[in-house]
């Protein structure tokens, strides 16, 4: 397995650390900082991108040109990160393209409403409604995989819990990249033990995420802490996290608590990596390898669905 040298990793982390001013940036600044790199991302000639209107929301399909006929009616629904205040289909196109290629599946990214203009529960409602919209387009629940990174991972968990509580059929599985599993308490051990190692995350930055999203709703709403909720009945979960990020404990505790109630869950902890390192797959072999693992998980879940049909 190819590995990036420690020297290269340290150089990347130093760059990220020096350019990570999330806590002091305005919302407009955060959005602009994501718009600039999106414009320069590499194109993929073997993909088709199709805009999609999901009620009042906009989304984008990333479709491999060699999509197999038996995958036409299967889909990955992806919820992006961005601290609830930023994130676009453009910015996530490269990551979702790589997930589509590795899995052989279509990926639908949705631009849910953003805070602070649209505070809690706007993003939750939009993600849940997008899943329901996809079902109404003829996709069976067992032919859908949910995925998300950072707060997008939070939205995946909250969507699954809402569907379960409403008695709706759940998707075949879900993958989570560096998810926030507890935005209320922020009390994971790694907030302290990884504070000096994490080039992009911190307790104070995550406190701002919570404040930006909840507005005047109040910080103790239980759905913002999926970790503290009953996880029984959730579908197969696949989690990836870096061992240098402050959210490491969020993922470890989620795995432990999900397993304790009978949920099948697998956790990959990637050495020397940080939050959503998969985003640098164009330069980090470990990131592409992690995406390939996600693709394997997706193929396995969707092929099992095909077999049972």
UniProtKB/TrEMBL annotation:
Species the sequence originates in: Paenibacillus agri
SUPFAM superfamilies linked to this entry: alpha/beta-Hydrolases
Gene3D superfamilies: alpha/beta hydrolase
Any GO molecular function: triacylglycerol lipase activity
Keywords (A to Z) from UniProt: Hydrolase
Protein origin, superkingdom: Bacteria
Residues in Alpha/beta hydrolase fold-3 domain copies: 76-278
Signal peptide residues on this chain, from the entry's feature table: none
Family: Belongs to the 'GDXG' lipolytic enzyme family.
Cross-referenced InterPro entries: AB_hydrolase_3, AB_hydrolase_fold, GDXG_lipolytic_enzyme
Name of the protein: Alpha/beta hydrolase
UniProt lineage: Bacteria, Bacillati, Bacillota, Bacilli, Bacillales
């Amino acid at each position: 397995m190819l590995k990036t040298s420690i020297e290269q990793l340290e150089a990347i982390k130093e760059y990220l650390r020096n350019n990570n001013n999330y806590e002091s940036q305005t919302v407009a600044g955060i959005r602009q900082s994501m718009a600039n790199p999106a414009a320069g991302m590499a194109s993929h000639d073997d993909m088709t991108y199709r805009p999609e209107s999901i009620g009042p929301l906009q989304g984008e399909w990333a479709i491999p040109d060699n999509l197999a006929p038996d995958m036409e009616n299967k889909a990955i629904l992806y919820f992006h990160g961005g601290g609830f205040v930023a994130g676009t289909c453009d910015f996530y196109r490269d990551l979702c393209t790589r997930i589509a290629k590795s899995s052989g599946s279509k990926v639908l990214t949705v631009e849910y409403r953003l805070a602070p203009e649209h505070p809690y529960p706007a993003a939750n409602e939009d993600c849940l409604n997008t899943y329901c919209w996809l079902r109404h387009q003829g996709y069976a629940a067992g032919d859908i995989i949910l995925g998300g990174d950072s707060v997008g991972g939070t939205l995946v968990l909250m969507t699954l819990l809402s569907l379960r509580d409403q008695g709706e059929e759940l998707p075949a599985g879900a993958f989570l990249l560096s998810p926030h599993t507890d935005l209320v308490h922020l009390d994971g051990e790694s907030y302290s033990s990884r504070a000096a190692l994490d080039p992009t995350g911190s307790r104070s930055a995550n406190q701002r995420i919570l404040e930006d999203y909840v507005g005047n709703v109040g910080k103790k709403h239980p759905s913002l802490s999926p970790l503290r909720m009953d996880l029984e009945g959730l579908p197969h979960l696949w989690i990836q996290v870096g061992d240098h990020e402050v959210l490491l404990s969020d993922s470890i505790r989620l795995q432990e608590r999900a397993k304790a109630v009978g949920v099948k869950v697998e956790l990959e902890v990637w050495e020397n990596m940080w939050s959503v390192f998969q985003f640098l797959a164009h330069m980090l072999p470990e990131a592409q390898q992690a995406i390939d693992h996600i693709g394997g998980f997706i193929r396995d879940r969707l092929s099992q669905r095909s077999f049972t049909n």
